[in-house]
Amino acid sequence: xxxxxxxxxLMALFKKYYSSFRSVEPERIVSREFGYxxxxxxxxxxxxxxxxxxxxxxxxxxxxRHVYYSTAYYRKPEERNMQDKExxxxxxxxxxxxxHIEGVTELTYEQTLDIVKSHARRLIEKFLLRxxxxxxxxxxxxxxxxxxxxxxxxxxxxYSLDSDMRREISNYIRAEGLSIQEIRKNATSVxxxxxxxxxxxxxxxxxxxxxxxxxxxxxxxxxxxGLNPEKYVSKLRSRFINKRPRLDxxxxxxQEKYKIMDSDDEKLWQVLLSDLSISERVxxxxxxxxxxxxxxxxxGSLHGKTGLMVKEIAIDHLSEFDPLVEAIPNSFLDGTVRxxxxxxxxxxxxGEHFSVTEGECDVPTYLGVYASASxxxxxxxxxS
Length: 384
Description:
Elements: H1 9-18, E1 34-37, E2 44-47, H2 52-62, E3 66-70, E4 72-74, H3 82-85, E5 87-90, E6 92-97, H4 109-131, E7 139-143, E8 148-153, H5 163-173, H6 180-187, H7 196-213, H8 219-224, H9 229-238, E9 240-241, E10 244-245, H10 246-251, H11 256-259, H12 263-280, H13 286-290, E11 295-297, E12 311-313, H14 323-326, E13 336-341, E14 345-349, E15 352-356, E16 359-364, H15 365-373, E17 377-382
Antiparallel strand pairs: 1-2, 1-3, 3-11, 4-5, 6-8, 7-8, 7-12, 9-10, 13-16, 13-17, 14-15
Helix pairs in contact: 1-2, 6-7, 7-12
């Protein structure tokens, strides 16, 4: 008699989830390419579905570890050659992940998620809504299920953008290639309206010189710029331009300061610009934004390295959103599993803090799924 192959416990729990999958379903499904990574094997692409029912049936029978869909729309999404797919347009996608943010390697998973969320909020509030003029209804925000967030711009305004146009947007958001000379060029333009990076730097420059004019000591910034504080401040106070004190011109918001900028000012302003870009830029995965054929995680699917959902979030709920509570599937909230761990680890999930030690122990199903998916432990068997 042929022996039946046993389904691994983690895959069995994923199957349980997908057997009742009723989450966010992509619009224009017949125009999307799908891809997936099975529990055993490599990436499979160029899959197409004719209905949401077909997609749900596929997920419950195939039980993939990771599931993706195209941000682009095609006439023939199942074709293997990209040109044969007949591209019709693509959403504008921003992928925010901890991999692109400095200084997170020593942080906990929870702390990392908070930092990436702050970048996602800045992307939405500062760049997409305020500077690019997008409407909230044109944005869809998702927790990636892993260590970050995905922001989709779903609008006719962006579908036809080519890779170069998307790269310009990405570079602007990341402050890529930003320089004092470029700022000066834009600031002295007749179209300058005090917005964007130019406006923000202008405010910081004006604040800096206003502080000096009021007797403030700014030696630390001047020294970082390689300037002698005493000599530089003395020059500011002694020079007049067209009968106006130089310091008054530099502390006044607007274009005039850029017309009298000298080499010392440039050094200082580069320091201010560097500080500004570090504090205000958004770290996004640029290739994701520029790629007009990109696959991204399917909303509602499970992340194969955490067992958490790719969860849609209302924009006005993003600041309060807790992925380690709200992205846990309901089907994992009940029951207990036994896990075996080679190393100890700690994590807070579902409002409870867990300290898992080496060896075997019984934990809630959702913690067992996370520990197994992230390869911190192995699920031995399901208890209840």
